[in-house]
Amino acid sequence: MVDLDHKGWRIFASPLVGFLLLFLGFPILIDLVYSLSRVSFTNLRSPEIVGFGNYGEVLGDAQFWRASWFSLRFGVITAILECVLGLGLAVFLSPLIEKRSWLMAPLMLPLMVAPAMIGLMYRLVLHEFVGPVPYYLYLWFGDSPSFLNAENAFWTLVVVETLQWTPFALLLFYTAYRAIPNDVREASAIDGASARQILTAIELPLMRPTLIFTFFIRFIDGFRVFDNVYTLTGSGPGGSTTSLPIYIYEAFFKQGAIGKAIAASVILFLASFVGLYALTWLSRRGKGAAS
Amino acid sequence: MLKFTKITLSALALITTSLGAANAAVTVLGWPGGSEETALRAVAEAYNAQSGVADADKVELLFYSRDGFYDKLQADMAAGSSAFDINLLATYSIGRYASYMEPVDLGPDAAKVFGESVLKTMQFNGKQYGVPTDLSLHFMYYRKDLIDALLADPAARAKYAEISEKYLGRRLEPKAPDSWTWDDWAATALYFAKSVNPESPVRYGTVLQMKNLLFNIMVWQSVARANGGDWMDASGNITIDSPAYRTALELYKKLYDAGASPKDSLSYEYAETNAAFGSGQVATALQWNAAASELTDPAKSPAVAENVGIVAPPAGSAGRADHIHGLGLGINKNAKNKPGAAKFLQWLATEDTALLYARSGGSPALLPDVAAKIAKERPDLVTLGQYAGAYGYVMTGATSASAFPVYELQAKEFTGYWSGQETLDEALANTKAGMEKLLKQ
Amino acid sequence: MIKLARWIVYAVAALALNFPVIVTLLTSFKSGKEISVNPGFWISSPTLENYATVLQVSDRLNIFAYLFNSLAASLIGTVLAMIITFPAAYAIARGRYGRKVLMPLIVNLRAVPLIIFAIPLYMMFQFAGLLDTQLGLGLILTIVNLPLSLIVFVNAIAEVPIEIDEAAKLDGMSKWGIMKGMMLPVCRPALATVFIFGFITAWNEFLFGLMLTSNRAVPMTVGASFFFAASGGGIQWGAASAVMIVGALPPMLIGIIMYRQISGSMTAGAVKG
Questions:
Q1: Any CB–CB contact under 8 A between A106 and chain C?
Q2: pLDDT at position C271, please?
Q3: A127–B272: do the CB atoms touch at under 8 Å?
Q4: Which of chain C's residues have a Cβ under 8 Å away from the Cβ of A8?
Q5: CA distance C72 to B11
Q6: Does the distance separating the beta carbons of B299 and C36 come in below 8 Å?
Q7: What are the residues facing B59 on neighbouring strands?
Q8: In this predicted structure, what is the pLDDT of residue B441?
Q9: Is the pLDDT of residue B188 over 80?
Q10: Long-range contacts of A180-189 (CB under 8 A, 24+ apart)
Q11: Residue of C83, C133, C226 lying closest to B18 (CB–CB)
């Protein structure tokens, strides 16, 4: 039974709504005006309204689409890698960690360091003359590849991101996995199910909400990647490591094209609304088909 | 949980009752880290110690993070911040900030200390916006031991000639670095690259900083300038698609593709370049003058310090060229204490202060007779002044309000060419179109 | 046998995931001279000079002030976000209130680079005197933390059997009463999760810290970058490493303390099944 007393619920949401109005109401309004204006840092207080030109400019900018593609690819690939690795580790290591919960702490460490700093640190780690990775590669194999040229930078960044954020997935998956009551497992074991069968038939379905949630969060975070990429490669040779937020940041601060930067954000915002609605619709349909 | 929340909140309330800062009279926003900060601290202390300076005119220093410094400064200035009375400005950003700043009269003596050409690095539309404090340009750093060995060995000279013919189309003889042309340098870089010459004693002939970053374009563009390149001509036409720019862009690509520079050069900037040269595996590097102290210090660069040679950048068909830009200090339009700020800047522009600034580690560009007074303590300043005077240049349009975005655009397009994602024609066409849009505003 | 395999996998995972952290830790004990000639994993002459540099308070560099600013701003940014999203999450999960607009709006805030609000927020803060204050930065961090906080709470409340609400309602409890008395305790793992991740996110934020502070409220991430270039144009890798390690300690500590909340309530979570 769902309580649809709309008015009664309003008060529960009011602190959040009030906060949003107070802190983002004015900025959103200003930004909408800016997105329709010719505006740079010199005329912030007197933007010249020109209509939808900024939107046209963004949609016609090949670099915008390239950045969108980078973000999409980066988000999907890192989210998949993080979830697969995180799930594998959570399930496989669960018997160890269950008995000694401190074992979790070292695995959580990467989350504690700011991504901007991690990106900076990789400038040292991957440096051909002072970085340990090329040093040992030279020592053992006599050569070391280019990590950050236009072809390889994407995959290097994927590894950087995955190493830092797999622990996020691991922690959530482990928590969900441990939350499955043991009697459920035992009952299936008595019925003669193998460990793998229990995993695929019982445990994974029970973890489904967490799996979806984690994948979703990691996808968004991968899509909007900024700090570590920006400190490591910047926007990359020829703009090859420009994620959408980097595109927007550079348009905003480096080119002073504020209207264009905000128009790009509005487009991103609308696109993610569409994506989110589509997702909800799909999952509802999926559920409907299952029942 | 609720209790926990309550405790946290009351703790927060305590914490956030702001601790009103001591309001100094003249706040100076300086360039953080490095010798500029050390020198500024020294002169500020000396200024405050003077008996003639009222409490209301004493200076207090403020520094931001070096990462994102200009983004932050731009937001501050555009929003009309009064957090500082005096702020940093640079030749390449002067057009961007002039509208938020107040011109300053430095008095007639300033020209006798710095000279007109250096004062010009702080001028916009004919008005003086700041005191030039430090000058930046580039040196060609090289390994004396390696070059000497090359010059002395006939077999090596033959190999050198062979390599230069194969890669550059001309048989070149090794020469002393101070008479290098860009081709001589390129031949040297190729000779010392293991991928070209497996017998090379070091891994690479040079280290090119090719990250998509505006400062790297400043380093590189002296190659174009030495061949006669410029952003635009006298009537304002963009002249970027010129033989000079083509030659210079192709030269870097040739060296990078041949393996004369480290594989990850496309992600290298100042720090990476220093580390590479300092490792002892690189024969030459075109790098900022600021790196000299680190590269020649045995405690910081033990592998090379004893053998570092420094000359002006090589010559091209139009002679030698060395990018210069000045850092300086000027008055914020929204300053709370403009007379106090002006007083400090005028004092900074006097000969005694400039000498104190130099002695404290700063790198002011001084006229020869002024520099001579500290030649013993700072011989590098004599070199700096010499190079700046003889080879220094600023591209036409490189002080305009759009200079920053133009550099950004070039960085993106040129690295696109160097990394093989664009052809030379595409990169130049895109740059030209973009610059026309930016510079005609 | 399988146990040995688990230990091996654990060790490999711990080393691989922490690789950059390990390098940072090692680098923090090397002198500048050694960093330039020895990239390896051993340290020939370990030194504490980097930590001495970082921990020394000078008139410009004050790591304790940065740590304190970050702590204050991050706590505001985490706790305030939790306080305002929890009731909203309850309304969304139980009353389907705001499912069409409010929820997607907040979720999408995570996808959009918030830096586009920098200029209007800067002006607002200038007007309200919130520039360069811990409270101001904390309020921004609250915005940053809203999406994750809301999603986690909505999911957590949705998993609590609705029979609990119904029973409580029959007992005459109000909705507020149910939320405070029943939901909050049951959702303890979710609260801990949000607190940990919210705090880490807030602690590690850089851009707004850079834009909205200049002197008094500079947070750790921005303060840390002061050390990188602290004596020259290049990067002082030793000092940078030391400051990163010191800067990572507080979230580490909070993570360890709060992790017990998650694992400790695991048995309580069994109610769900």
A1: yes
A2: 36
A3: yes
A4: 95, 175
A5: 9
A6: no
A7: B26
A8: 58
A9: yes
A10: A180/A206, A180/A207, A180/C273, A181/C270, A181/C273, A184/C273
A11: C133
Task: Please answer yes or no on whether C79 and B275 come within 8 Å at the CB atom.
Answer: no
C262 pLDDT higher than 80:
no
The reply to whether domains B23-135+324-393 and B138-143+204-322+402-439 share a CATH topology is: yes
Predicted ipTM of the assembly: 0.88
User: Nearest-CA distance from A195 to chain C in Å?
Assistant: 13
Q: Which residue has the tokens 């190659």?
A: B223
Give the model confidence (pLDDT) of C62-89 as tens digits: 899 999 999 999 999 999 999 999 999 9
Q: How many CB pairs under 8 A join A and B?
A: 99
* In-domain check, residue C266: yes
d(CA A277, CA A283): 10
* Chain A residues inside the 8 Å CB shell of B416: 237-240
Sign of CA dihedral C5, C8, C14, C19: negative
Our CA-based measurement puts residue A208 at a distance from the nearest CA of chain B, in whole angstroms, of 28
Q: Report the gap between the CA of A149 and the closest CA in chain B (Å).
A: 6
The whole-angstrom distance between B172's CA and the closest CA on chain C is 34
- Specify the pLDDT at position B6: 54
* pLDDT, chain C, mean: 88
Please determine, for residue B24, whether its predicted confidence score (pLDDT) is greater than 70: no
Eight-state DSSP code of residue B315: E
Rg (CA), chain A: 24
How far is the C-alpha of B198 from the C-alpha of B200, rounded, in Å?
6
Domain with residue C88: its CATH number is: 1.10.3720.10
Kindly give the parts of chain A with pLDDT less than 70: 1-4, 286-291
CATH number of B23-135+324-393: 3.40.190.10
> How does pLDDT run across B414-424, given as a tens digit for each residue?
999 999 999 99
Q: Residue C227's Cα: distance from chain center in Å?
A: 22
- For chain B positions 135-164, those within 8 Å of chain C (CB to CB) are none
Of C7, C151, C273, the CB nearest to A184: C273
Q: Which residues of C touch B288 (CB under 8 A)?
A: 233
pLDDT range class, residue B22, cuts 50, 70, 90: very low
Any domain includes C3: no
Helix B34-49 × helix B351-359 angle, to 10° = 130
Domain limits for position C81: 55-272
Q: Is B78 on the interface with C (CB under 8 A)?
A: yes
Q: Please say whether the beta carbons of C37 and B303 come within 8 A.
A: yes
Fold assignment, A55-290 = MetI-like fold (1.10.3720)
CATH superfamily of B138-143+204-322+402-439: Periplasmic binding protein-like II (3.40.190.10)
